[in-house]
Amino acid sequence: MKEHMDEKTQARYQARAQIVKAMAHPTRLFIVDELSNHGERCVCELTEMIGTDMSTVSRHLSVLKEAGLVQDDKRSQMVYYRLRVNCILKFFACITSVIADNAERQEKLLL
Amino acid sequence: MKEHMDEKTQARYQARAQIVKAMAHPTRLFIVDELSNHGERCVCELTEMIGTDMSTVSRHLSVLKEAGLVQDDKRSQMVYYRLRVNCILKFFACITSVIADNAERQEKLLL
DNA sequence: GTCATATTTGGCTAAATTGCCAAGCAGCAC
DNA sequence: GTGCTGCTTGGCAATTTAGCCAAATATGAC
User: Fold this and answer.
1) What do you get for the CA distance between the two ends of chain B, in Å?
2) Which of the 8 DSSP states describes residue A87?
3) Is A14 within 8 Å of B30 (Cβ atoms)?
4) B56-96: per-residue pLDDT in tens?
5) Which residues lie near nucleic chain C, judged by CB under 7 A?
6) Strand D nucleotides below 7 A of a protein CB?
7) Which CATH architecture best describes the domain A7-85?
8) Model-level pTM?
9) Angle at Cα A13 formed by Cα A9 and Cα A15, nearest 5°?
10) How is residue A67 annotated by DSSP?
11) Segments making up each domain of chain B, as ranges
């Protein structure tokens, strides 16, 4: 990416990639899914569900927050996270269709 | 992710993450966008547009292919790639809305 | 004030990703 | 066959990411 794509175009795809990257992890996808279903969760609840270190979950949440996908809300000791965007569900629908398509293709190859 | 989420759930998010990961790169997002607009492109065309090493582009394409997002078609010396899925456009719409939202928020903070 | 809980952050190591070059392979022209 | 073009793959170094522990911070209960 050094000469043919101008800087603006580069920057645009860079910005897009940052958003996609923020979701490119199983734990973060789970969090996004859970928040889209339940609306709001504190770090401790998510940690409990995921079953890993709280520090790790917190780091994942900060990645999502940095990308502008979630926002946090501190109430007493707990920090509650929720989605900032509502189009994320379409992501899952699309991803699921890709997975289904891959599975179907896989099956055909086995016949 | 060791005890609270069962293996099936884990595997499901793992599979989803693999798909998202495949798009989590500026160059690969560009390729996906270009293919969704133009339908079909050979490696050399994409290399020309991106302006990087052909081996690098080829690697990116293999990542997309591995995830089931594109398929290739060899005709004479050239290999043409095209999208396997058509819901990808919704991705961009959603991502763009996140970026717009982030920018707006950024602006508010500066006031 | 002390103590406990909820969360974030620093530091570190292990693993994955990226990009380049060189080498290999396939198809076409001759 | 040789040579050329388009593409892929091996290998390697540099960067990024992930996950854990320990330490720091904040809030509430007492």
Assistant:
1) 42
2) T
3) no
4) 999 999 999 999 999 999 999 999 999 998 888 778 888 99
5) A 1-2, 42-44, 47, 54-55, 57-59, 61-62, 72, 77-80; B 21, 24-25, 27, 52-53, 55-56, 59-60, 63, 74, 76-77
6) 5-10, 17-23, 26-28
7) Orthogonal Bundle (1.10)
8) 0.92
9) 115
10) T
11) 7-85
